[in-house]
UniProtKB/TrEMBL annotation:
Name listed for the protein in its UniProt record: TOR1B protein
Organism: Turnix velox
Matches recorded under InterPro entries: P-loop_NTPase, TOR1A_C, Torsin
One biological process term in Gene Ontology: protein localization to nucleus
One Gene Ontology cellular component annotation held by this UniProt entry: nuclear envelope
A GO MF label: ATP hydrolysis activity
Length: 187
């Protein structure tokens, strides 16, 4: 029933607007197999039911490969390289195989991966201390405050990082920066 509803929803939207964008958030929480319902729209067919899906964009967001990305970033760091030097090609195969074999990915054993229907895997790399500080500065500016480096440092120091010993990467990215900055509002 859900597969049929999903197909009808996509079909209706693309029929009305060929340039539709579909964002599937939290794929890791989606029932395995459900996403395969959209395979006909991504496959190499010119038309499905007399409708072309070539101009539609499908984006799948997932935390399923997060542990793989974090391990790769940490290995990269341990080898003395900067995070910014990582290349997509170094992560893409690892991510597609990892997500395909992860029962909690929403893409587990999905025909979308099996048939190479996903064009790009875009990893969101973990943020380092310097990136968190950039987030704090940006939030201070957005609130109309003058950037105070002591406050920036204090907020960044309140964040949690991993691995525990080295404290390299923020385990929440910048998600809690706003709340942490609220505590320092009296500056």
């Amino acid at each position: 029933l859900f597969q049929e509803q999903l197909q009808n929803w996509i079909r209706g939207n693309v029929s009305a607007c060929p340039y539709s964008i579909f964002i599937f958030d939290e794929m890791d929480k989606m029932h395995p197999g459900l996403i395969d319902a959209i395979k006909p729209f991504l496959d190499y067919y010119e038309h499905v039911d007399r409708v072309s899906y070539r101009k539609a964009i499908f984006i799948f967001l997932s935390n399923a490969g997060g542990d793989l990305i974090n391990k790769a970033a940490l290995d990269f760091w341990m080898s003395g390289k900067q995070r910014e030097e990582m290349q997509l090609k170094e992560l893409e195969l690892m991510l597609s195989v990892g997500v395909f074999n992860n029962k909690n990915s929403g893409l587990w054993h999905s025909s979308l991966i099996d048939r190479n229907l996903i064009d790009y895997f875009v990893p969101f790399l973990p943020l380092e201390h310097k990136h968190v500080k950039m987030c704090v500065r940006a939030e201070m500016k957005a609130r109309g405050y003058t950037v105070d480096e002591d406050i920036v440092q204090a907020v960044a120091d309140e964040m949690t990082f991993f691995p525990k010993e080295q404290k390299i990467f923020s385990d929440k990215g910048c998600k809690t920066v706003q709340a942490k900055l609220d505590i320092h509002e009296d500056f």
